[in-house]
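Workshop exercise sheet. Pairs work together: one partner reads the sequence aloud, the other fills in the structure field after running the prediction. Swap roles for the next sheet.
Pair: D.N. / O.F.
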Amino acid sequence: MIRVIAYASLAGREISLDLAKDTLKDLLVQESPAITVETIQKLVADHYNLRVTELKSKNNGQHFAFPRQIAMYLCHKMTECSLPEIGKRFGGKHHSTVIHAIKKIESKRGREKEFDRLVENFSQSLH
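Structure field:
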């Protein structure tokens, strides 16, 4: 309050909601929307020209499995979901499948800089 009163006095303005917002804007935290499993699934599916239902499918062909692994990895890193919950959200996969996906993506990120940039771009576009 002291800050708002001081600013109003110095600026010669009346205290108002707009003045308070202007004065305290550096202190006000802008909440970004929560990152959800669904948001991650949509982002990855769109990038790989898939439907979200295909990411959740039982089809384990590389065309579906690899994007699914990326999405599972991102869900683990960027949401509060447990491994069993992530597996459940991807068509009822077992939590060990999620662990395998995380390890595979982490390993590939360590070996391939271009792939690491792709995953980082996914992360940044979710924030």
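Discussion prompt: Helices lie at 2-11, 17-24, 37-47, 52-55, 62-78, 83-89, 95-111, 113-126. What would you look at next?
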